[in-house]
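User: Here's a structure from my thesis project, written as structure tokens. My advisor, Dr. K., wants to see whether a designed sequence matches the one we expressed. Can you design one independently, without my sequence as a hint?
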């Protein structure tokens, strides 16, 4: 999955929120849990939260991720407002995964409609760029 909504907070009761939410979490994590499964003495999570899939379009399809995100934000506007004001939520962000080009410079355009929607809902926008190993191949 390449576009994800994430909500986190140190005192966020993620289970209480999700019990009454129409949002379907792909992953849920709790403060104090280990970051890596099977590593009991590893680093612990400092916050609780969840991730929701916004788009299944691959990192090479930013245009499709953006279209899906605009649709998602419109369809879930009221629930996202509730999430943003839910007790303990410190941050809500939408993350776009982008395949990094091999060019000397890379520009990615985010349309005003998307920026307006995330701004109106007080949602941060994050772009994570991934390099392709060996400079070849396709990351889906």
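Assistant: Designed independently from the structure alone:
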């Amino acid at each position: 999955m390449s576009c994800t909504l994430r909500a986190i907070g140190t005192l966020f009761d993620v289970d209480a929120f999700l019990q009454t939410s129409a949002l379907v979490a792909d992953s849920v994590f709790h403060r104090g849990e280990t970051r890596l499964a099977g590593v009991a003495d590893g680093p612990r999570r400092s916050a609780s939260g969840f991730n929701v899939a916004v788009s299944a379009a691959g990192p090479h399809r930013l245009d499709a991720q953006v279209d899906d995100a605009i649709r998602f934000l419109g369809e879930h506007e009221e629930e996202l407002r509730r999430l943003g004001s839910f007790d303990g939520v410190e941050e809500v962000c939408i993350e776009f995964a982008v395949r990094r080009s091999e060019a000397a410079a890379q520009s990615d355009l985010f349309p005003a409609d998307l920026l307006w929607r995330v701004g109106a809902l007080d949602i941060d926008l994050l772009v994570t760029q991934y390099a392709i190993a060996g400079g070849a191949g396709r990351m889906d």
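When you compare it with your expressed construct, this may help: The two ends are 9 Å apart (CA to CA).
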